[in-house]
Amino acid sequence: MKKTTWPNRDELTSYTTIVLLTCLALIAFLGVADVLISNIVTPFFM
């Protein structure tokens, strides 16, 4: 088996930032899509 190398503090901070920003972008996209689809579909059921 290969020896495991752990990321240093700078790499860990960078990776964590990328993951958090990606999650926030996905949350924002899904939120906007949900509102738009809801506004489009709701009049058909009124």
Automatic annotation (TrEMBL):
GO terms for cellular component: membrane. The chain crosses the membrane at residues 12-37. Its main location: membrane. Keywords: Membrane, Protein transport, Translocation, Transmembrane, Transmembrane helix, Transport. GO terms for molecular function: protein transmembrane transporter activity. It comes from the Bacteria. It is found in: Membrane. Signal peptide: none annotated. GO terms for biological process: intracellular protein transport; protein secretion; protein targeting. InterPro entries: SecE_bac, SecE_sf, Translocase_SecE/Sec61-g. This is Preprotein translocase, SecE subunit.
